[in-house]
Amino acid sequence: MSAKIHFRDYNPKQMILFPQRLDKDIAENDPVRVVDAVIDNLRLDNFNKLYKERGRSPYHPKMMLKAVIYGYMNNLYSCRKIETALKRDIHFIWLAGYEQPDFNTINRFRNRVKEEINEVFTQLVVVLAEKGFITLDVEYIDGTKIESKANKYTFVWRKSTERNRAKLMGKIKALLEQIDESIAQENTEEENRQSFTAAELMDMAEELNRKLDDRPTPETKEQKKEHKERKKQIKQLKAHADKLGEYDEKLRILGDRNSYSKTDPDATFMRMKEDAMNNGQTKPGYNLQIGTENQFILDFGLFQTPGDTFTMIPFYKSFHNRYDRLPHTGVADSGYGSEENYRFMEEAGIEAYVKYNWFHREQRMHYEPDPFSVQALHYNADGDYYVCPMGQHMERIGTTHTKTGSGYVSESARYQARRCQGCPLRGSCFKAKGDRIIEVNHRLNEYRRKARERLTSEEGVRHRGQRCIEPEAVFGQMKYDMAYKRFRHFGMDKVNMDFAFFAIAFNLKKMCSKIAKQAKKGGNTPHPGLFLLFFQIIRPENRIFRKSIQKSDPSSSSGSQAA
User: Fold this and answer.
1) Quick check: 283 and 268 in contact, CB under 8 A?
2) How far apart (Å, rounded) are the C-alpha atoms in residues 519 and 513?
3) Are 38 and 65 in contact (CB under 8 A)?
């Protein structure tokens, strides 16, 4: 029979220092009561596996979760500041039931639940949907760059690494030729190899060292000089092997990226909007993607690529993994308007209100396309040819295939004009030699045509206007109201954990704000205590969960009796 986990007694309603005073000092509609009611009724059974059955009784995970999330709601992201608040702030004291974990305990708790906290975020979003704050039918997507904790001068660049590695390989080959011609020939005959691994070089150095030791002891001055020179060369070869291993490790960490930080290898150097020097300096950071509705965060993802184009499909897959469904409508700006993204959304059944790169230009009142651009040329679909400004047919001459960074292959048709020489419009039409050749992606043009129709419809105009106040407003509140401009952890897993805590706090704070606004307008404001009844109605399994916890957790049952 397995041992049971015994948490420390936790009762947020207990009154030891000031009987009935502390509870009265906290208003009935205070956000701290909403946090208490909501987290009390979340399913946290997967937290139990993170604790050992033996040893000192740990702090209750619900108390720790409440303290951290309420700290994030109040712009307290430091464990030391949360520790101080648990001793001084009556809201934290009431919420924690006079428990006072130190900053190390709070930090260990955050790191312990870095995988499970995403499930808590998902539960909260589902609750918001069932309560009517959101529908999960439409998702407004946008991204921003968040600076890493790493220093901005800890960069490693791919081009520099590859250039230095190539120079090192030249030095290694020259050194091998000086040391032993037979070894150099042996390693270059096989398929004319142009590179070696660090392990191979170390093996060569050891072999050369053994050969040198097997030789008789040098007696003459010239023999001693040669012996010393060989020793020096072997030592230099080992140093080159170590340096080669260092370059190979850097290339392994880089992967498909062009840069990373030495102190935070998961961070990529990107250009930030917050550029105090106005010199376009790159800084280590992450590309944060969020999906919002009614200014609530529905989903989030952190990516190592600076651009937004390749993040949309993984982001939608993340949404599907969370909620076992996809949104009916997706709204995004022109940074996501690629053929691959349009095709994915069409095949997934998502109504795409996604702009393409020159959509805004087309909406200008006095917009006139360049008559010589490919978009302005007339296309005859039946004959599969274009007509140039002079009326000449541009016949199809072939097809090209282009592979994107994500591996998607797009197809473009090539068309060539005839008799361009001597044309009076040639100087304005194109400047290359020979007859003009154009490449057209018909599938992408069709996706753009459909996107233009949707975006200019009445529903599209509404979504375009709403997108400006959805993710953009969330980013503004996040960076300037809640001072969340820079990550405070190293590594992708801890950065994900930190933002999951922030997203939960942000959604709870937004929910409290909307409840307060509804009360000012004279609406019916739910009492925070009614959240308990609400959860029991929509999630009856929570009552079973609470009973199972009471059976396996004597401290929790004793706390409820004390209340």
Assistant:
1) no
2) 10
3) no
Number of H helices, E strands in the chain: 22, 13
Give the Cα separation of 58 and 61 in Å (integer).
8
Query: Distance between CA 55 and CA 61 in Å, rounded?
Result: 16
What is the per-residue pLDDT across 166-221, written as a single tens digit (0 to 9) for each? 999 988 888 888 776 545 454 444 434 567 788 888 888 888 878 777 777 777 88
Distance CA 510, CA 517 (A): 11
Beta bridge partners of 353: 331
DSSP for residue 419? -
Q: Residue 532: what pLDDT?
A: 47
Q: Which pLDDT value is given to residue 192?
A: 46
Q: Are 353 and 386 in contact (CB under 8 A)?
A: no
How far is 250 from 168, CA to CA, in rounded Å? 14
CB–CB of 463/353 below 8 Å? Answer: yes
The two tokens of residue 157 are 């660049």
Picking from 113, 495, 458, the residue whose alpha carbon sits closest to that of residue 284 is 495
CB count within 10 Å of CB 331 equals: 28
pLDDT tens per residue, range 290-343: 999 999 999 999 999 999 999 999 999 999 999 999 999 999 999 999 999 999
Q: Strands, E, within 337-486: which ranges?
A: 351-354, 378-380, 385-387, 393-403, 409-416, 437-440
Is the pLDDT at 23 greater than 80? The verdict is: no
Cα separation, 294 vs 139, whole angstroms: 9
Tracing tokens 């916890």 back to the chain, one arrives at: 549
Contact predicate 491/266, CB 8 Å: yes
The residue among 515, 499, 542, 540 whose CA lies nearest residue 39 is 542
- CA-to-CA dists, residue 519 to 35, 131, 527, angstroms: 18, 16, 11
State both tokens at 327. Answer: 């949104």
User: Which DSSP symbol is given to 337?
Assistant: -
Q: Tell me if residue 54 falls in helix, strand or coil.
A: coil
Name which of 105, 111, 9 is nearest 57 in CA terms: 9
Q: How confident is the model over 433-477, as pLDDT tens digits?
A: 888 999 999 999 999 999 999 999 999 999 999 998 999 999 999
Q: What angle do CA 276, 277, 278 make, to 5 degrees?
A: 95
Interatomic CA distance for residues 121 and 501, integer angstroms: 8
